[in-house]
Amino acid sequence: MTVPDFLTAKKAGRKLSVLTAYDYTTGLLLDSSGVDALLVGDSLGMVMQGNDNPLAVTLEESLYHTRCVSRAARRALVIGDLPFLTYQTSAEQAIISAGRMLKEAGAQAVKLEGGIRCAEAIRRIVECDIPVMGHVGMTPQSVHAFGGFKVQRNEAKILEDALAVEQAGAFAVVLECIPSPLGEEITKKLTIPTIGIGAGPNCDGQVLVVQDMLGMFDEVRPKFVKRYADLGSAIRQAAEKFREEVRDGVFPSPEYSFK
Ligand SMILES: Nc1nc(=O)c2c([nH]1)NC[C@@H]1CN(c3ccc(C(=O)N[C@@H](CCC(=O)O)C(=O)O)cc3)CN21
Ligand SMILES: CC(C)C(=O)C(=O)O
Ligand SMILES: [Mg+2]
Prior knowledge:
Elements: H1 3-12, E1 16-20, H2 24-33, E2 37-40, H3 44-47, H4 59-72, E3 77-81, H5 91-103, E4 109-111, H6 119-127, E5 132-137, H7 143-146, H8 155-167, E6 172-176, H9 180-189, E7 194-197, E8 205-208, H10 210-213, H11 231-247
Parallel strand pairs: 1-2, 1-8, 2-3, 3-4, 4-5, 5-6, 6-7, 7-8
Helix pairs in contact: 2-4, 5-6, 8-9
The structure holds 5,10-methenyl-6,7,8-trihydrofolic acid, 3-methyl-2-oxobutanoic acid and magnesium ion (MG).
């Protein structure tokens, strides 16, 4: 998958599937599933690091996880999510952070949060031939300004933000936690693909956090998460079985031992 393929998919009416990934093993599994892109999200601050929100994630940490995922991706596009305060202070900072995602971590594109207020940064990054995915609606790096991870309903503002992201040259935009009719309206008005997370069924694609959709993480339970597997139970059961077999001297049996 390439950045131009994203635009072709929208024109052809082919839906895009995106999952997050933060490590090599998961990257390999997801890449071989045929999903279109792997997003190394700053949600890693929650699912990998155990923080309450993504704000503490550093650029170095995101580069590290993106490097791991890039090594795994044969087909899927790898998108590095720029962490809080690595692109907001100036266009120069945004270009340098975005450039490091490509130079040092093997990403093919970056993602950043914000509409009108980030349009200049997006424009300047894109001028360097670094593809940018935008992100509007409920932008998790704004959690304190929003007073929590809450559905955003300022329809006029969110539409303006999405249009600004497109006009600034982004190749796609994430729509997060907004009413479905607004997701549909924005998707119709934009020529770039919209990737929804809690934005209804009429976006051009969908993204989920992989630990959520695999049933491995329940410290947040957004309404938009569908559980496609219950790996949490599978992992716990396997570990319990291992613990019991070690306790009872059943493991390791001769077949797992050297003569
Ligand atoms: N594991 C995980 N999954 C995610 O989807 C995710 C992260 N982490 N970290 C970064 C952000 C945070 N996100 C979240 C977190 C919680 C809700 C949530 O619980 N929303 C409520 C809405 C409540 C309201 O509007 O009043 C919900 O019921 O869905 C939504 C998005 C999405 N992102
Ligand atoms: C959920 C997606 C859109 C994201 O930004 C993340 O995982 O950080
Ligand atoms: Mg993110």
